[in-house]
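Q: I have 161 residues here and want to know how they pack in 3D. Can you give me a structure?
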Amino acid sequence: MGLPSQMMFRIGMAALLHDIGKVAMPDKLLQKAGSLTSQECALLREYTVLGAQILEGSLLLADLAPAARHHHEHWDGSGFPDHLNRADIPLAARIIAVAETYDSLQRGHVPQADRSSEFALTDLQCRAGSQFDPTVVQILTEILSGQQEQQILQEESVTKG
């Protein structure tokens, strides 16, 4: 994306800490199997706000608060907590949303996910423009495609030589 290295480092830090607000959520709620009630959903959605408040309390981490608060905002404005849309969502939050979903799909944290990179990318591409920033999804697709091409070339050179 052509971002400065310092900004990439801070986005990486935000990615590591984006769910910090979950420490304030009851374990029973976080570990509940099955559907959540509407009250439980509302309570759980507060963790992004709590996470931002925790980060704002630190001089060294305060700049990461918007990423923690807004990583569940959707490109079309249907997310939470503030229903931001498009470029109003901080770039770090848009990147984290795509990365977190890709990781969840690959690790099988999402029911019915087949854990393949192709499945995860297809899922993200289907939601680009509604849930996710289409540019971020496109860049992830290009990066992963480039990595796959490199891997194929390396395997071919090992086989030939």
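Q: Anything worth noting?
A: The first helix runs from residue 5 to 17. The chain has one domain: 5-160.
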